[in-house]
Specification:
This protein has 67 residues and is an alpha+beta fold. It has a domain of 43 residues: 2-Layer Sandwich (Double Stranded RNA Binding Domain). Helix content is 24%, strand content 18%. It contains one helix and three strands. It has a three-stranded antiparallel beta sheet, covered by helices on one side. The termini are close together. The model has no long low-confidence stretch (mean pLDDT 90).
């Protein structure tokens, strides 16, 4: 899976990074490499399914989709 990220220099130093296609998926780092590593982790957490919060009606099923 390929996702476009945006790296912006922060006013306080370092970088803020976000994923336009994943609203609210944002992170930061002291340098570009750290910011990229941190956003990778944020993306994984953003996309991780949360089964315990799902309330399903009778007859509804869930499946995992590998991309």
């Amino acid at each position: 899976m390929k996702l476009k990220i945006v790296l912006e220099p922060s006013d306080d130093g370092g970088y803020t990074v976000y994923v336009p296609s994943l609203p609210g998926c944002i992170s930061e780092g002291e340098n570009r490499e750290e910011a990229e590593a941190n956003i990778k982790e944020a993306i994984e957490l953003y996309l991780e399914p949360v089964d315990d919060e799902m309330i399903l009606k009778d007859g509804v099923e869930t499946k995992e989709l590998v991309l």
